[in-house]
User: What shape does this take?
Amino acid sequence: MTAALAKSSKREIAVPGEYPFTWDDFASIAALMYEISGIHLVEAKATLVYSRLAKRVRALRLPDFAAYCAVVAAPDAADERSAMLSALTTNVTRFYREPHHFDHLSRVRMPQLAEIARAGGRVRLWSAGCSAGHEPYTMAMSVLECLPEADRLDVRILASDIDPQIVNRAAAAQYSDDDVEPVPAPVRSRHMVRSSGGWTVSEQVRKLVSFRTLNLLGDWPMKGRFDVIFCRNVAIYFDEPTQDRLFTRFAEILNEGGQLYIGHSERAAVPALKPDGLTAYRREARRG
Assistant: This one.
């Protein structure tokens, strides 16, 4: 909680509206979000919190946000905490977002990884914070453009997100005409199929990608290391100590020479990671 919020009256109305929403309510929701996801909600987000959660208050037929805070904090309220998380997480994404990252993946990383895969080696990529699936499917299409037989080799992409609802949507692999507009026409013709009302990602692309619900700040069940990790515009929602812990964990799970891609406004201040291109970091080799 910020000093300004600590000094304000806890019962003062934070956002005027249909349901009473005090700074005390905001503080309770912010604390719970930080606990379960690491997302750091600042005072400036109070209006956003109100607008997105007022729908939950209405759906549960509650009189105010104080009642909602009591409900969502209850030990048996896992489903409502999941609904709150879905409401408060932002899923801004598109195919080939920040295209220079995919250009770097194709030109710099994939030739090396293709050699490994063709020699019978294991290649693993991770979309950490996959949202509605645009990022991992773009990764898969980039892999297949460089390594057309990737689905028959030991090449796999893990796609994870903390929000189970968005993970289910991503796994469905269904997109509108507007969604696929950024996909170059030749790539679209090879890796997407016209379906009712839009497009479906091809079976070959989907075969490369496995979706999982995963909290980046919780336990990671994966046993092996990764060659490439995309975690873009996710850490911006965390405070600095949480960012440092996350990037350190990424460094630990990357293979030597492995690549981490992060967003334009993010910086990975971790000694094990060396800048390699715009907002891309390479894991340095161990020193004896």
User: Anything to note?
Assistant: Residues 3-88 form a domain with the Chemotaxis Receptor Methyltransferase Cher; domain 1 fold (CATH 1.10.155.10).
